[in-house]
Amino acid sequence: VNFTVDEIRGMMDKKKNIRNMSVIAHVDHGKSTLTDSLVSKAGIIAGAKAGETRFTDTRKDEQERCITIKSTAISMYFELDEKDLVFITNPDQRDKAEKGFLINLIDSPGHVDFSSEVTAALRVTDGALVVVDCVSGVCVQTETVLRQAIAERIKPVLFMNKMDRALLELQLESEDLYQTFQRIVENVNVIIATYSDDDGPMGEVRVDPSKGSVGFGSGLHGWAFTLKQFSEMYAEKFKIDTVKLMNRLWGESFFNPKTKKWSKQKEADNKRSFCMYVLDPIYKVFDCIMNYKKEEADNLLTKLGITLKPEDKDKDGKALLKVVMRTWLPAGEALLQMIAIHLPSPVTAQKYRMELLYEGPHDDEAAVAIKNCDPNGPLMMYVSKMVPTSDKGRFYAFGRVFSGKVCTGMKARIMGPNFTPGKKEDLYEKAIQRTILMMGRYVEAIEDVPCGNICGLVGVDQFLVKTGTITTYKDAHNMKVMKFSVSPVVRVAVEPKNPADLPKLVEGLKRLAKSDPMVQCIIEESGEHIIAGAGELHLEICLKDLEEDHACIPIKKSDPVVSYRETVSEESDQMCLSKSPNKHNRLFMKAQPMPDGLAEDIDNGEVNPRDDFKSRARYLGEKYDYDVTEARKIWCFGPDGSGPNILVDCTKGVQYLNEIKDSVVVGFQWATKEGVLSEENLRGVRFNIYDVTLHADAIHRGGGQIIPTTRRCLYACLLTAAPRLMEPVYLCEIQCPEVAVGGIYGVLNRRRGHVFEEQQVAGTPMFVVKAYLPVNESFGFTADLRSNTGGQAFPQCVFDHWQILPGDPLDQGTRPYQVVQDTRKRKGLKDGLPDLASYLDKL
């Protein structure tokens, strides 16, 4: 190891020289493998082992399955040379006197099922290394994580991995390879441009090879370069400025070796500069070594100035190739320069990230301290996930200090996600037992951690479930809750094989809920224990953890089931009236479906219960043709105060209406959380209150009279408005060779899926098929698909939207009717559909 904990602690105070970054990419594009080359540069693992160790895959099942499941953090210290420091021009990006850099790197999983881990990693970092496999190009998950990163205002740099495959397997010509790279850079920039503006707070976000923010190479073989490295090699030879040359080495610039002239057009005797100066030398090395041309290879090595160690001289073929490339273009060096030069320091990043992170007013003490990354301000720290310790059942709280300092033994306010300023709930004042540094597989104790750093805390796990804010400022608001791109739609019921183990199972479920940012553990009214996750793989890992680590007992599990949503398809066919139990109060209401797209807008936070009601009404009026006066009187959203259903007050001059508002809202939250058909959440329903007749005496219109009445009235509205069920739908992206496309169609048709787009990946024989597949039909889909295409198709499914199940759930013999009956039976509700007469009253 090239550094000690004390050195790292010293670097922590030089916050301009810190880089917090995460590595994000599509599944199997080589994140963990690439991370190894940085870890080996820091001297934590041997250089020869880099690319095979996958140091950041700490769990045993991660090594066995060769996939990353949990995101892992590691802190490393590097020093840069003077010539590279010149490139860092922004004064906030480095201390003049310091050439060391502290890099906190988080390696994240690529599987869609674990994208909640990616969200947790992005929240505590400021920059992202986006890895793309140059053979398969930009995939669906690349787009998802990149979009999330930009939404969190995280600056990306791009790395094209697996170049060894392009050269050895596909044997691409250098011009074709350039076109492949060009296409990937374009695709990534299109995604970036779609979700950010150049004049936004981050400045220019786009990646550009000629600026040095794009790297090329192979993580497995441990070599990589940016155009900066090649420019430096040639700058001395040609006696021109490095930066000038970098612009010439990419894009439409051609060089004619005979006339020694540059031109912008392709002509007969000139060649693209990128191919000539960057790719050709690499091709030559590959050619000499892979075709065993010993003398040529030796000459090349002396030309490039590479001296081999004595033990490497006897190697040949691929083994020699790895050593040569790793010595000539070490991957750690190229990555380190990209990270240090192009990714922001906490000082730079917190200036523009504060408004997205902090819920309170943007001028209070905490907000200002976060904005200035002030070590002397109040402590503000966000815990983004829990990491299990070697000690069973205890967790480190993993997060980032945004302002102030966190020290061992200090007293702090620990605020959960439901905390509201001025109230006592979800708030604990406790001492922090220890602060620790996360180092991949190890942890190191450390006295205190100043702002801009990532660390772990011991002794906080009893007060937080998954995430929360830790502060010493008594008026502080919460940091914003993370927005996950997937939702837990697949559920499994679990029970212990031996009934005496039930308490252990309950304890285990509590720990499981802590250890994964997204999994939900619910107890149904019938006493079942439900685990909800993002997909089959996610649930499989969760159940394995539950059995082996958290509960340590054998478990029986049910088949996976899907959660549905209830909705309506037309306006209620009559005005629904319900009377309160004492017959003195009446409510008149109707339900109607929301226009297409509004429910999605509410989910994405475009329309928000916290918005200013005037601007929200204007937005609804312009986009969805709502009556602006009605749109101003949206009483609330539900379920949980922020869901995709609304309650609108359309009454005209009713007495005492505001006194029952709270009770009606409570009834509405109750009804939207448990719908009338099978107690599933409602989605996309708008309820209108038209008239209310109330008793003049306040004691006769209390909550006990109004709340159940509201719920009955809403249920009656639902039943008269042609109720429907909605099921969740996956967007599946399947990569396969052309011959296998037919097999895919067969499998999808059997499972009610449909293909809506297929295209060929340019320059390769691969096809990409995009399809919608109902989640309910997706169990065993992967295995089925592989057996029908001879194992050549690779699916990746991500939750996309809700769609209405065709058929009326009130008619016997339809599919939705069957679903409703099954759900009711599973939840222990009474048989048969609810009767309208029990909710609707006569005048």
UniProtKB/TrEMBL annotation:
<keyword id="KW-0251">Elongation factor</keyword>
<dbReference type="InterPro" id="IPR041095">
    <property type="entry name" value="EFG_II"/>
</dbReference>
<keyword id="KW-0648">Protein biosynthesis</keyword>
<keyword id="KW-0547">Nucleotide-binding</keyword>
<dbReference type="InterPro" id="IPR005225">
    <property type="entry name" value="Small_GTP-bd"/>
</dbReference>
<dbReference type="Pfam" id="PF14492">
    <property type="entry name" value="EFG_III"/>
</dbReference>
<feature type="domain" description="Tr-type G">
    <location>
        <begin position="16"/>
        <end position="258"/>
    </location>
</feature>
<dbReference type="Pfam" id="PF00679">
    <property type="entry name" value="EFG_C"/>
</dbReference>
<keyword id="KW-0342">GTP-binding</keyword>
<dbReference type="GO" id="GO:0043022">
    <property type="term" value="F:ribosome binding"/>
</dbReference>
<dbReference type="Pfam" id="PF03144">
    <property type="entry name" value="GTP_EFTU_D2"/>
</dbReference>
<dbReference type="GO" id="GO:0003746">
    <property type="term" value="F:translation elongation factor activity"/>
</dbReference>
<dbReference type="InterPro" id="IPR031157">
    <property type="entry name" value="G_TR_CS"/>
</dbReference>
<protein>
    <recommendedName>
        <fullName>Tr-type G domain-containing protein</fullName>
    </recommendedName>
</protein>
<dbReference type="GO" id="GO:0005829">
    <property type="term" value="C:cytosol"/>
</dbReference>
<dbReference type="InterPro" id="IPR000795">
    <property type="entry name" value="T_Tr_GTP-bd_dom"/>
</dbReference>
<keyword id="KW-0963">Cytoplasm</keyword>
<dbReference type="Pfam" id="PF00009">
    <property type="entry name" value="GTP_EFTU"/>
</dbReference>
<dbReference type="GO" id="GO:0003924">
    <property type="term" value="F:GTPase activity"/>
</dbReference>
<dbReference type="InterPro" id="IPR005517">
    <property type="entry name" value="Transl_elong_EFG/EF2_IV"/>
</dbReference>
<dbReference type="InterPro" id="IPR000640">
    <property type="entry name" value="EFG_V-like"/>
</dbReference>
<dbReference type="Pfam" id="PF03764">
    <property type="entry name" value="EFG_IV"/>
</dbReference>
<dbReference type="GO" id="GO:1990904">
    <property type="term" value="C:ribonucleoprotein complex"/>
</dbReference>
<dbReference type="GO" id="GO:0005525">
    <property type="term" value="F:GTP binding"/>
</dbReference>
<dbReference type="InterPro" id="IPR004161">
    <property type="entry name" value="EFTu-like_2"/>
</dbReference>
